[in-house]
Amino acid sequence: MPSEYVHRQAWGVELRSIRANRPKRAQTGARAQTFGAALEQAEQLWRASEAVGTIASPLLLFYGLTQAGRAICAGGTPGNAWRPAESHGLAFQFTRPANGANLDLATVVVKPSGDGLIQQVARILDSPVLSGPATLSALLGSLDAKLLFSGSQVADPKPLEVHEWTKNLTTLGTTATKSLFLAPAPDRFAANTRLVAAGPQNLEHTRIIPPTGEQIAEWLDTYPTLRGLGVPTEVLGPEPSLDRSDRGDWVIKLIWDTDASMAGITQSDWTVEHLDELYSYEWNGTSGVVLPAVAGNTEAHDLVVAWWLVLYCLSMLARYYPKEWTEILDVDRSPLAVPIEHVLSVAYAAVPALIAFRLRLLRGMQDRR
Length: 369
Hints:
Helix content: 25-40%
Radius of gyration: 23 Å
Largest sheet: 6 strands, antiparallel
Shape: globular
């Protein structure tokens, strides 16, 4: 295999290296054979998806992900019941649009069905799957990716960017306070304004009235990682993003206990405790994302599970509804064509890194035991 492949392709160095430095449970016997064979098939399916267009790529990407899921089962399931299930554990429902109408992503639905492969993988990743039906619109909204869908195609809630922040600069890097910097703040918060009359030291201007702590708690109730913080005691903003965030136009700063500090934990460590995915960990620069719970779940999906459900829906459309799928991808007629093309390109690049990270976590946890 050409050496440039390892550096250039999505499957790349990390996932190929894991094959020889795998979790302990997958080092010998049938588990080892399943682990290696599953990752080899996953890689070949991923590579094959480069050679086809969006008409067929969801099939290759989804089945590539399921093969990676079999490797996760071999490397992560305790006990003897590790063999991957042969069923998906999911059921698909689709309502065809009326003649000439555009597809509504809310009419594409996935439901739980028994205990299949996705349920096995989710248990290893400590993630929910589905407590009931979920629409493709809601699932796309839960992905940690800057997608091209409009608000009418994929509605809120969407992931929130979270940054380390403290009002008291003297505590940076030492004692933590219960404070975070979030984006994007909802536009409705910024729309609550009042006119400030001109005075001796100011011109007439419009001022944003910060939302109440109760309004903030209601907004964050969809985000399980932040829900437990309750009602903030101080709300600063929303303020214009000014390029401080890639998500939306408004940012907001929150404090949950103005006077409390927590000895023995740094601001960075406290911030990490309230993230679903970590982006960076450094003094005064710790950041990540929190994910919404969807489909009646009380916890957010692990991102591997979220992508699994999205790719399942897209692959089912491509496989069983080829006429409708082709119409969806018609860039001359369908407003969904470019956003769907984009989400598949994001999946191609992002999902292998997520798989590699989960397998590294499994290996690290088992090495410490």
